[in-house]
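Why do we bother with holo predictions? Because pocket geometry can differ from the apo form. Keep that in mind while you read this record for manganese (II) ion.
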Amino acid sequence: MSSSIQKGGKRPIIIAGPCSAETEDQMIETALQIKESCNIDMLRAGIWKPRTRPDSFEGVGEVGLSWLVNAGKELGIPTTTEVANTKHVEQALKAGVDVLWIGARTTVNPFAVQEIADALKGVKIPVLVKNPVNPDLELWIGAFERLEKSGITELGAIHRGFSVYKHTKYRNVPNWEIPIALHERLPNLPILNDPSHIAGNRDLLPEVSQKAMDLNFDGLIIETHRSPDTAWSDAAQQLTPKSLGVLLDSLVLRSRYSEKLDTEHISVLREKIGDLDDRLFEILMVRMQLSEDIGRFKKEHNITILQPEHWKKLISARLGRTSEYKLSDRFMRQVMDAIHQESIRHQVRVMNNALDTNE
Ligand code: PEP
Ligand code: MN
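The structure, written out:
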């Protein structure tokens, strides 16, 4: 049973399985459904779950390891689970899990990554490292360095997106330029994409997965569950093995970038532009929320929405900085006018009570 994830090997590598192992029956049945509907290379399941809030399901713990390993045997493929400390590493190794992964909430913490690296000294096992929840490339690279220093030679990265305060259409914003930069820094490191944790809902999975393929990621790790809506964790983003099969069949695989360097360059630039546009609109969204707060204040204090003097001052301050931004006066004015119009529209809605006061 090969558990190697290599650059230039089979593409895409598909790791799939439930967010969490819940029961023995759920693991075996999920495996049987996978067998029927799709071809995957490795079975995943979370045994210890890092949850945002207490009193959520925190994983079944050690007992689930044999369920995962047995389900992997049923499929004849290797297995992988998340480890966050020495105890997890020891128990996962003892149970015969083939590949370990370090979760996004662990990668942020160099103490925790070092603890895992120390526990793995002298052990030959592939380790996948998810990006840290914050968009910090150096922290991600630091985790690989710690593992390498412990003698781990088979490494892979998982891009699972980055936390933001206000959720956009994604649960975790992709910031594609970060895995692209990781590839520039560590060209031999295989990089998988985790559309499940980026999307946060199953409808977005095809779009994110296809984008990862277009960007030449080496594989995907996707959460699949026999009955996603009743999953004990991450219900909204899981899909049945049958739907996973449909998703995998729909993926269009374009040729590797190395065969078409020009296309690679353009795609990378386009991705960077797309990400900047995403951010521009996220910033505009937050800006409009502030306009609504001002609208509420004006309403409470009986002040009119239009404050022309104030607006004139804002415009001339911006126009005074066009050369600094390398933008034309005309463009600056058009953008500012459009923002002003939209902001008034939000304030009017607040005045008319069209918005919930907590919105
Ligand atoms: C998971 O894969 O189920 C998980 C907890 O992911 P992350 O570390 O990306 O949040
Ligand atoms: Mn999950």
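The pocket of phosphoenolpyruvate (ligand 1) is lined by residues 19, 46, 50, 103-105, 130, 160, 197 (CB under 6 Å).
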